[in-house]
Design brief:
Elements lengths: L17 H17 L11 E5 L19 E5 H14 L4 H10 L13 H22 L3 H11 L13 H10 L2 H10 L10 H12 L3 E3 L6 E3 H7 L10
Antiparallel strand pairs: 1-2, 3-4
Helix pairs in contact: 1-2, 2-3, 3-4
Length: 240
């Protein structure tokens, strides 16, 4: 199965049955997952994919592979699926953005790295989508006029009313030199509440009294609010 790379003459490939290719990839992945061939511990990197995209009404969390709308895909399969979804719905902005995001590779990501030609196509698409969205939703003629006036220094709704000299003087008088010095001294030396011995003892006792739990998978001990993120259901030693 070959999916064409977008190019200047990408319209030549519109005769392909993208929906059929999409369904073949999804059905194969669902079948292998049901047979236990796609697991988090088999050494192959998978990403949870929404079969019905969330922007089209799909539900479920990507890390819950047991959900009927979620299927584990390899990095390459995931990239191809989002590419195909964009080709099926070429005018859908959010699906176009999802395809662009698949082409953005971070330092810690394991995603499939497409060719430079595909990345160029995705960036051009992203630029057009962003420009159209901003133009249709924000940069109306009225908004442009207001922004122009603001940069020219005119009084307008974005900046509110200009303060009078009397009001500015009142605001300056609020923080007198005496008040500034008093506030500064409050947090210096022994005046700082956090440096008092009784406060430090109370904070240490509070830390000791925190409920600690052990992860059933790696037996690591820690505070329950800290352990939930990387242990219990999310523990790397958890067996499927």
């Amino acid at each position: 199965m070959v999916v064409p790379e977008p190019s200047v003459d990408v319209d030549l490939f519109y005769f392909m049955d993208y929906q059929k290719i999409h369904d073949q990839i999804i059905d194969r992945a669902k079948k292998e997952y049901s047979q236990g061939l796609r697991t988090k511990k088999n050494g192959i990197y998978y990403e949870g994919h929404h079969i019905i995209p969330r922007c089209l009404g799909g539900i479920g969390w990507a890390n819950n592979w047991n959900h009927e709308n979620i299927v584990p895909l390899t990095a390459r399969e995931h990239f191809i699926i989002h590419w195909i979804l964009h080709l099926i719905y070429p005018n859908h902005r959010k699906l176009g953005e999802a395809f662009y995001n698949m082409c953005v590779i971070g330092k810690k990501q394991k995603r499939y790295i497409p060719s430079s030609r595909i990345i160029e196509y995705a960036r051009i698409l992203h630029g057009k989508n962003h420009s159209t969205y901003m133009k249709n939703n924000f940069w109306s003629e009225d908004m442009t006029l207001h922004m122009s006036k603001a940069h020219m220094g005119e009084k307008n709704w974005m900046y509110g009313k200009n303060h009078t000299d009397e009001t500015i003087q009142k605001m300056k008088n609020i923080w007198t030199q005496e008040k500034k010095q008093s506030a500064s001294q409050k947090f210096l030396g022994d005046n700082n509440p956090a440096k008092r011995l009784e406060v430090q003892i109370k904070m240490k006792q509070r830390a000791l009294n925190r409920k600690k739990v052990n992860c059933p998978h790696c037996d690591k001990e820690g505070a329950i609010n800290q352990m939930k993120q990387w242990h219990f259901e999310n523990c790397k030693n958890k067996k499927d």
